[in-house]
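subagent[fold] <- orchestrator: predict structure for attached chain, return tokens only, no commentary.
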Amino acid sequence: MFSLQTIFGSGKQFYALLNEAADGAYDAAQALHQMMKATDRQPALDAFKLARQRERAVSDKIGKALVESFITPIEREDIESLGSALYKIPKQIEKFADRYSLATRHLESIDFAPRAAMLQQAAEVVRDMVRELPRLDIDRMTALNEKLRAIENEADRLMLELYRDIYSGRLDAQQMFLLKEFFEILEKAIDRCREAGVVVYQIVLKNS
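subagent[fold] -> orchestrator:
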């Protein structure tokens, strides 16, 4: 039996759950950056698996709350879209960490830290955007959206530098393959952040 508070409440629990999802995405990105900065780079995958489990649990809670709540603070489809977009960020990060753990000895000379730092920055902006969502402040959200776009543009520029390294002739075939694969996974993670940011920005545009 649903309580009146559940049925007719303000729906603040949705913002809390979305914040939790955004925090989980940021924590995963931060863990990856820390791992890439470590001198030994021995991958400890527990942090990524926990982040993914946390994100899955939040996703389930959002789905349950959508079923049980009569009123939502923003459209249900928007809540679902944002929850799904946030879920994909730690999923992509865990993909990098899992594969990296299998290829560590082949990647010792590759510095992933700068791009991992950009991923962390992107996830931080997404976290800020989700926290600002209840205010529906279009000016603030526009500034954050532009910041996220700038990070994405810089990531694209670094990808061009990567391809120059790949085709420089100084790498063997295996290194070329691994370098391309792992940097594309990182690029995809940044894209996932950008996608989540676009969802937030569109929600604010629609409701402001």
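orchestrator: received. Logging for downstream: Residues 4-207 form a domain with the Methane Monooxygenase Hydroxylase; Chain G, domain 1 fold (CATH 1.20.58.220). The chain has one domain: 4-207.
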